[in-house]
Amino acid sequence: METPKLPCPPQSLLGCLCVGFNVDVRHPRLFHGPAEAQFGYKVLQRVGGGEKWLLVGAPWDSNRQGDVYKCRVGPPNTNCTKANLGTTMRAAPLSSAPASAPGWTVISGRWGPSRLRHSVSGGMAAVCGAPCRDVATPCRCQLRPPLAGCSTYMDIVIVLDGSNSIYPWYEVQNFLSNILNKFFIGPGQIQVGVLQYGERAVHEWVLGRYQTAEEVVEAAKNISRQEGRETRTAFAIHQACTEAFSPERGGRADATRLMIVVTDGESHDGEELPEQALCLADAGPPSPQVLGHYLRRQQDPEDFIREIKYIASDPDEKYFFNVTDEAALNDIVDALGDRIFSLEGTHGYNESSFELEMSQIGFSLHLLEDGILFGTVGAYDWDGAVLEESRRGRIIPPRKAFEKEFPLELKNHAAYLGYAVSSLQLPGGQRLYVAGAPRFQHKGKVILFEMGTTGTVTVAQALTGEQIGSYFGSEVCALDVDGDGVTDVLLVAAPMYLGAQSREMGRVYLYRVGQRLLAPAGTLHANKKPQDSRFGYALAAVPDLNHDGFNDVVVGAPLEDGHRGAVYVYHGAPGTLLPNYKQRIEAAALSPTLSYFGRSVDGQLDLDGDGLVDLAVGAQGVAVLLRSRQIVQINTSLTVEPPAINVIQKNCQRGGTGAVCLRARVCFRAGTRARGQQDREIELRYNVSLEERTPGARAAFDSSARRLLQRRLELSLGRQSCLRFPFHVLDTTDYLRPLSFTVRLAMAESTGPVLDERSPTTIRKLIPFFKDCGEDDECVTDLVLRATMDIVGSSRQSPHVLRKGRRKVVVDVVLENKKENAYNASLLLRFTNNLHFSSLALQDTSPVKLECTALPGHRRLCSVGYPVFRSLAKVSFTLELEFSCSVLLDRAEVTLEASSDSTEATLEDNMVQLSAPIRYEPDLFLSSDANLHRYEVHPLGTFPHGPGPEFKTMVKVRTYGGGGGVGSWGVLAHLALPPGAEFWEPRQWGTATVVPVHPEDLLHVDRLDCSNAWCQELSCQLGRLDRGGEVSIHILRTIHNDFFRGAKFRSVKVISTIWLGVPESSMLLLEEGAHRREVGDPRTLAAPQTWGTGLYRHPPSLFPPFFFCRWCLKSSRGSGCPSPSGSWWAASWGGCSSWH
């Protein structure tokens, strides 16, 4: 029964845009049948007598005889009715195709899994005509068995030992049930009778009494043991030979006769067995199978075995079975079936090699222009073959016809040639037959060949599979893409091809048909997910589904999605088939209960009356009918007035400000190439948008102040409908990039037509801004930038020196446009970190506006004449920058770069880079102080021994905080401290040679300094000095009394020199002599009438070289340097360095 499918939920417009295919998956029609009968194994569309049908094969129906169901495509709730072909054909309808005559259908069949495990028939075909449309009566079909099939027309009599020695009896009953289930019992097929014997013989039932296997098995269960003390086997065989096969007891004169004897021991009338053997021989072949013998009570079986073998058919190893007890009878059921199979299947007496007896004609078929090509997979010991029945007559190729491609030494390998058949029409008019052999050498083969009227075969080409077990050639499909009568493509399926993760993904090979040979053209692409799929299990060429003028192909994959299945649709193209699928129809989208969807496909006819081809798909117990939908083309045009946006001339008011207003006109026209209703109305959904997916709004619709409008429209095929959409442009900085206006459309109906995949669903128009830039509408501008800086400095040797009171730099800038308009012109200012932006002032009365905004990293971006810097315009301005007091760099750089959204003619003059070397003159103050200004030396003899008193000198370096001063670092404080050791020896000090004053000449010198005494020099690195900061240097020295004991003097003033300096690489510059100070050390006085006497080769120093140096930083927020202490002095050692 058909099950209606609920419509899918509505989707958004963006989710329902044209997807390029037209098989409707939202409204399938599902026809249900018995799943256990394999309903859905094959599907076939059929039209006849004004009715439309879906024929569905069920090969296991009617006790596995097979049948066809007729499902009328009409009212929603239509039942499928059995055609009852099985009672006539005794075969399962596995292959079917519409015949060339209208109203007729060819149905071919073979035995499905029959009552004998291997038993199959030669097959047959039926041509069923118009009477099949009457569901009340069986179809009248003309049977056309092309060959005399393997005979199952057989009478079998089982001669059963029922004497007392048979025990347990139920094991014998089980054996009977099992073996009887192997027989294909029915009218015109096998008849079974049972004769039980002991001392006497009884006919339990005669031949023909029971018509089905079920009835015979039930009767076997009710057989009671006859019992008896004697086993009269010869007597029972005589009764069976003379009575059981007689016409009076149901025997058929033309049926093959088979006797099965089941006994357990030596007979009591064994001497009569040779006579009965002669009787059997006179009755004609075949001789009976003889079963039996098992040991009981340790009796010697040799005589019995010799007895049974005597009456059994030869050779004994094939027709004699020996079991140990009644329970073991069931172990030989299959072997017994094989023996019966060979008896009924071969023509000659005791033969075992088959020719055409098991051809299975009808396993596959292909309609020719003048006949039918059948596949006979069972022919020639399952090597397979083909058979043609046409106007040329019946053509049966002999076994040797295929010997070149299928060598005789491989005859037991079961190539299954004829598993799939087809034909090709070559460009020159030549016709080639195609036959697949999926088991050939386990990889499969497809041959293309010609066949003469005598059965001769000429193979033109052979295609071989690439993977063992892939079943290459199990399906073939020839496709005439453009319908010109010449085959363009051949598809060959290998549905069991192992893909990723060793999954049976399947593969379909594509071959292009040339003048005489086929060329590989890749494979069809399916779902890439690693899964069991069996893609290619079913193939079908279908008429042009998408109305593009090219025929298409449908491929089944029944194991995809966990055996739920899927079907793929591939579209044709000029001379080929597109390898990427256009639609994947998964079973889950149709019904949650579908399984093995895609096991068969067919699509040739229009079954729903809309003039379009529909698709039939078989599943497990279900046949699915999918309608194709009309394809329409929507031609959309879009115009905008005015055609450009003039931002200089506002033409309307929006939101209280001037704006540019425009109006868009959108027109739709619908058409179709498909047959069917040409005057129908379709419903269209569409949206219009401004600046789609672009951040920042530059325009909006007048009706809603939004950028997106969604609408519906009723549209007639062949007619045009137009709509208008007014909108306005907002103020924006982006005037060069065109404004986009977009129309997106989709069909509103889920059951109606679909958009052609080649019909655009998105139409976008770019609306340019009016630029006033000539006929080409391309603005080519030439921005020329000039700039000068008021500071000079050519090199490091002659830098620009920054002094107190002069901390600014002025840049004069001129920018002009010498060509066409420059839109969104801008000037980017970049300057080094030691400069700060101060001001920008226009120098003339030019109407050009200049607006600057700060950017990160010492940059300014200035818009010039927004929105357009007109042609031949010019602007001059002054840029004032101020030097940083905290960041000192050795160069000051200013970079200016002009740009616009227009095309620049010459980029070389768009950038100016100004640079000058910089040195800084710090504002430093140097001062000093000492805590001992006078030291009096006592007369000779009263000098204390050891060092004299300690005295301290403090030097301060201070930076001024006001007046724009800069901080300093890298300043060195130098101290020259006289006198030192080796007092009188000449030494080099600076650039002069110093000759120290001898101690005895001190009477004539009133001062000691570095010009007449050797000086010890200290150098201290002051570190960073911020504005208002202070550094103190403390020097601790000791007066050495021993010096004065050997000196002659009255009064000596010792002068130390302090000066500041910087390294040559420093950015600081100190004026010569501006930072030098003399510090008076303690004046030394001799006591009256007392002179120091004595000469020393190495007199001691006045101030020994033992000293400490300390510096501290005093900031404007600090409280000064700490007071010296012992620990502090020790910790400060090394702050300065000294040398002689």
From TrEMBL:
<keyword id="KW-1133">Transmembrane helix</keyword>
<dbReference type="Pfam" id="PF08441">
    <property type="entry name" value="Integrin_A_Ig_1"/>
</dbReference>
<feature type="repeat" description="FG-GAP">
    <location>
        <begin position="458"/>
        <end position="520"/>
    </location>
</feature>
<dbReference type="InterPro" id="IPR048285">
    <property type="entry name" value="Integrin_alpha_Ig-like_2"/>
</dbReference>
<dbReference type="InterPro" id="IPR013649">
    <property type="entry name" value="Integrin_alpha_Ig-like_1"/>
</dbReference>
<keyword id="KW-0812">Transmembrane</keyword>
<feature type="repeat" description="FG-GAP">
    <location>
        <begin position="521"/>
        <end position="579"/>
    </location>
</feature>
<dbReference type="InterPro" id="IPR013517">
    <property type="entry name" value="FG-GAP"/>
</dbReference>
<keyword id="KW-0675">Receptor</keyword>
<dbReference type="GO" id="GO:0046872">
    <property type="term" value="F:metal ion binding"/>
</dbReference>
<dbReference type="GO" id="GO:0098639">
    <property type="term" value="F:collagen binding involved in cell-matrix adhesion"/>
</dbReference>
<keyword id="KW-0479">Metal-binding</keyword>
<protein>
    <submittedName>
        <fullName>Integrin subunit alpha 10</fullName>
    </submittedName>
</protein>
<dbReference type="Pfam" id="PF20805">
    <property type="entry name" value="Integrin_A_Ig_2"/>
</dbReference>
<dbReference type="InterPro" id="IPR002035">
    <property type="entry name" value="VWF_A"/>
</dbReference>
<dbReference type="GO" id="GO:0009897">
    <property type="term" value="C:external side of plasma membrane"/>
</dbReference>
<feature type="domain" description="VWFA">
    <location>
        <begin position="155"/>
        <end position="336"/>
    </location>
</feature>
<keyword id="KW-0401">Integrin</keyword>
<dbReference type="GO" id="GO:0005178">
    <property type="term" value="F:integrin binding"/>
</dbReference>
<dbReference type="GO" id="GO:0033627">
    <property type="term" value="P:cell adhesion mediated by integrin"/>
</dbReference>
<feature type="repeat" description="FG-GAP">
    <location>
        <begin position="583"/>
        <end position="643"/>
    </location>
</feature>
<dbReference type="InterPro" id="IPR032695">
    <property type="entry name" value="Integrin_dom_sf"/>
</dbReference>
<dbReference type="Pfam" id="PF20806">
    <property type="entry name" value="Integrin_A_Ig_3"/>
</dbReference>
<keyword id="KW-0325">Glycoprotein</keyword>
<comment type="similarity">
    <text>Belongs to the integrin alpha chain family.</text>
</comment>
<dbReference type="GO" id="GO:0007229">
    <property type="term" value="P:integrin-mediated signaling pathway"/>
</dbReference>
<keyword id="KW-0472">Membrane</keyword>
<dbReference type="GO" id="GO:0034680">
    <property type="term" value="C:integrin alpha10-beta1 complex"/>
</dbReference>
<dbReference type="InterPro" id="IPR028994">
    <property type="entry name" value="Integrin_alpha_N"/>
</dbReference>
<keyword id="KW-0130">Cell adhesion</keyword>
<keyword id="KW-0106">Calcium</keyword>
<dbReference type="InterPro" id="IPR036465">
    <property type="entry name" value="vWFA_dom_sf"/>
</dbReference>
<dbReference type="InterPro" id="IPR013519">
    <property type="entry name" value="Int_alpha_beta-p"/>
</dbReference>
<keyword id="KW-0677">Repeat</keyword>
<dbReference type="InterPro" id="IPR000413">
    <property type="entry name" value="Integrin_alpha"/>
</dbReference>
<dbReference type="GO" id="GO:0098609">
    <property type="term" value="P:cell-cell adhesion"/>
</dbReference>
<dbReference type="Pfam" id="PF01839">
    <property type="entry name" value="FG-GAP"/>
</dbReference>
<dbReference type="Pfam" id="PF00092">
    <property type="entry name" value="VWA"/>
</dbReference>
<dbReference type="InterPro" id="IPR048286">
    <property type="entry name" value="Integrin_alpha_Ig-like_3"/>
</dbReference>
<keyword id="KW-1015">Disulfide bond</keyword>
<keyword id="KW-0732">Signal</keyword>
